[in-house]
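User: ok so my PI wants both of these folded by tonight, can you help

Assistant: No problem, let's get them done. Here's the first:
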Amino acid sequence: MKSTSFLLVATSCITSVALAQKPAAKLTANKPSTIAAAPIATPWVFTFGADTVYKAEFERLLSKNKKDKERPTEADVREYLELYQKFKMKVKEAELLKLDTIASFKSELAGYRKQLANPYLTDKKVSDGLIKEAYERMKQEVNASHILINCAENASAKDTLAAYNKILAIRNRIVKGENFDSIASKNSDDPSAVKNFGNLGWFTSFQMIYPFETQAYNTPKGQVSMPFRTRFGYHVIKVLDKRVARGEVKVSHIMLQTGPSATQDVIDLAKAKSDTVYQKLMAGESFEKLVDTYSQDQGSKANAGVMNYFTSYSNYPEQFKETAFALNKGDISKPFKTDYGYHVIKVLDKKGVPELKEVEESIKSKVGRDSRAESSKLVVAERIKKQNNYKEYAANLKEFMASVDTTFLQATWMPSDKQLTTKPVMSLGSKMYTVTDFAAYAKGNQEARPGENVQMILTGLFKKYSDEEALKYEENLLEQKYADFRNLMQEYHDGILLFDLTDKKVWTKAVSDSTGLERFHSNNKEKYMWKDRVKVYTYTCVDAKAKKEALKMATAGKSGDEIKAKVNKKLAGSLVITENKYEKADAQGEKFWDKKGVVDMPNEANVLKFFVIEGIVAPEPKALKDARGLITSDYQNYLEKEWINELKAKYPVIVNNQVVDSLFK
């Protein structure tokens, strides 16, 4: 599985492997051939095999990889030059192995392209407006109730009108004075309304679907909205309250658990304990110690009672949230009850809504995934049409639509050979879109809509089709129109290839090549040595009698085999002897380091045992199993270096030092 962080580094043309292995000192070994070249029309930096890297490419990527704004030093340039040579050779090798023709590679690159294309297919002015709107809404929280009447997005005109009339009649009853809660519990198609009377609690931007959110923010406090439609159906909203956003709070928590079905005795006991906790806190006892002693909230108890930051619209009991937000930083609450039990909390921190600059990228990402982004794309689609002389062929379109029968309303329509013609229905730039093209789109997007008008549905589908094709048209031209996009796509292309081939040649190979790993370890054992260790035999006994007998024999100098044979003769398993070696830095090593012979220590966790300390063991090589992680990492480095040497032999490098020396000067 590919790491996002790796790919981000790769798009700057430095792999995580290359960075990990970059030389600490100035490069001297394996120095490539160099020449002093006279200035030429297209300056080049280096060649590798038959390929050339030009100054513009190298300088652009070096600038991109530099995190600070200072000009790179000569050492920076030379270091990056070495890394970039390796990068280009690896990518070239991957292309020769045709890794870029594999379906998984194409699919992954297409996925990245789709993401990278999004900013080019949205209107900046509209997108910026949506970001600002979302941020302004984040500053306010809304408490609202709603009533829903189900109506599918593809409902017939008859069913749509019936749903609208029903919700309108409900609104009229509310406006005339009937109780909203009562009507919601009896009439709303939202199943939760039976219990919550349609109340949604407090919310802010991005917590409801966009049209619902917009209606809630645009409806004044105390008012009932006009009916409006979402993909779920028709709604009316009653805005109960609005307030300035409370931000987030972080608390430490002690809970005495009851539960919704607790008996009165359990409730009384929990209350008494919570009162005791509060009294101890007021007397100055440590909150953390009382958490450990009393709290039954296992989730926070393991963290000394500390909970994560939460908002006033998070999924916690209302009383819990209200209490937390009513306190100041450092305050401790009196005991209070929720359905879960009795609580005492201490406020550790509070923070308000962050500045726009702190959350702008997060909001931008959410806007891009939200239905509100569609408005931005529609603006772009219209602009693309205008820029590329969009034209509709109304007569051909009308003729085709008239030929589509009512099977389209049952989603069973199949276009006939007669219908599939090359007559144009629209053109964009130099590209023509035929009846056959639109027929395929219509066939793939038909839905059951009994009672509707075929031509009206097809007219709407054609608008959607033309907008989508306009965006595709622009997307296909992005490499031609925008150098930044073209360069970024090349970097992603190369980065994915580099990852795939490095995984094959180095990372996976080091893990799966057990023979090679063992050989590498055998040839480098002196690099993986234990320090001085104390050798300890642990005698674990089944009972006091076995321990007494074994301890007596050990003190008398009997060998472990002798002791085990005698003690276990009466009852197998009465004595188990294990051998261990500990370095001085280990806890056990420190305990036994200066000891020798038989050591009887107090029983630990009801286990009867004693120790025989043989003494200090000189340094010796570690077995592969004892240092597998480090050895595997070193083996990967070894494979990487060997691979680089092969590539350098296959793709000889020539550096144009005159151009390199001129970079960024």
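One down. Here's the second:
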Amino acid sequence: MEFLKRIEELRKEIEHHIECYYNEDAPEITDYEYDQLMNELKQLEKEHPELVTPDSPTQKVGGMAKREAGVLVEHNVPMLSLQDVFTKGEVEDFVTEMQKQVEHPEFVVEYKIDGLSLSLRYENGELKLAETRGDGIQYGEDVTANARVIKDVKKKLKDRPEYLEVRGEVYMTEADFERVNARQELLGKKMFANPRNCAAGTLRQLNASVTKERGLSMFVFNIQDSRGVSFETHTEGYEYLKKQGIKVIEEYIVCKTTEEVLSAIEKIEETRGDLPYDIDGAVIKLNRLSDREKLGATSKVPRWAVAYKYPPEEKETKLLDIELSVGRTGRITPTAVFEPVRLCGTSVSRATLHNQDFIDELDIGIGDTIVVYKSGEIIPKVRRVLHEKRPEGTRRFQIPEICPVCGSKTEREKDTADTKCTSASCPAQLERHIINFVGRDAMDIKGFGTVYVEDLVRLKYIKDIADIYELKKYREELIERGIIGKEKNTDKLLDVIEKSKENEAYQLLTGFGIPNVGKAAARNILRYFKSVDALMKADIEELQKVDDIGEVTAVCIREYFDRERNQDIIRRLKSNGVNMSLKEDLQMDMRFAGKTFVITGTLPSMDRKEAAALIDAHGGKVTNSVSKKTSYLLAGENSGSKLTKANELGIQILSEEELKDMLKSNTQQ
């Protein structure tokens, strides 16, 4: 039967998206698309109630509590989700039902913040525990250390009630989200898909300093439990919380009739585009706490509240241009520029087109009529192209083969949809290139932090990597302007730069930023060619004689050294005394050649990067995932699922001490 097959398909698909959203913090579809799948499943199960099973996604709350993210704690009060409704008619039905169930009900209509649910427990006015929703019923994750560094989380309450438990939503403003993603791109790390994704990943960080730096925010939307203080209504509770300095949902509206509730929903919808954070709907809930207690809850949702999800707003407009920008990693991003339209209360005229694959899928060209939308998000997107309205002669847009900033060749990055500028000296990606050059994996110029790089590039003291070794010419000027600090700090950094001239040549080669040439490849290449000068003369055939250097990497190396600008940089590095040759005393201990390591947990005396560098220096390879190809798992404290998987596969487990013993041994592994 078709409906049986469809139910199974939907359950499998929804379970996948629940895992992505709640547990991986990496949603693959929009909230609206997820809601459509869930509604279809609910309807089929309503028509065939005999097929409803306890493990169906319709019977669950949230995701699973993650043991790796933090210690599991038991909920004092279940953190249930809300019943979603999608039409004004369903809202009217809810209000009518409440009017039947309780006498003269009062409603509160407020923002539905798009974030991550968090419960805070206070004892005698002091914050004792912060927990995530987890499975919503029994267990959540203890994230108290991270909650303490969120600016909106109060550590102490003025009135010091015996016990108070509140629930709220942790979120990220658009400004903080853009700042964090700019930082991620600058450091060459994976960027977050949206503010909710970023907030969820940040709250589960094991390092509270990262949580603090990213700048999370929080609204409290409910009092879960209390002793020593009591309230008759939800809004009375809000007023109490505000006096304690707790930030509650803004602009909530108290209503008594269906018309007032619908008017409040419309008011929120009209102003949502002006908010500095994402909302994806409006919550309608009973105000009197006694009414809530009378109605209770199902196994999944409270009976006294619903969440109205705003439908995605769509508008037609004309595509005027496609602009190309180059990010700090060299990635070229196409942006649609169109005739302004109003969406969710704001005027929009731009939307990202992501990459060439997205452009090809839409079959979009300048002059086309396009449909843009906001699906519960602030960021506008292009939904589709109305090809029937396409002007004659319009052609699909193609990202050019030259960089729009520096004119260098562009190329499609292997196994991705990204098109990148191939020039490491491209002004658009200079900061990222310099950070890579001075970083631990390359020249390891300690103390040369990201802020210094940004300032020196911005003020044009550094225009390429060779300029780093000419900063000493501007010593007095740098001190006078305080760019690096006072005399002591400036001299300290200039001294470290000077000493880095003596580094191994493979560190310099790593710092060049040649595609596919990381530290391990650079080490192998210099062991073969002995000097940068000899390497510069090698042809593609000769380059491929080096272990693990294939044709693609060989071509990248050859193209790098063929560029006149790079040749000039290398000449200036030489003239400044930077070492270009392999040192005679470099140990050629390749005892881990052909071995693959995975590192997990907290090691006693070194961090993971140091351990990876040690393995790499002896010819080994470090990967992130445990598989049948893994030779060893280097495990520290709190190793988690990787240790479990390694044991299942029969992979040898090493402690840090055992790794060091292997290196002390005179025999090769």
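The chain has a mean pLDDT of 87. The two ends are 59 Å apart (CA to CA). Good luck tonight!
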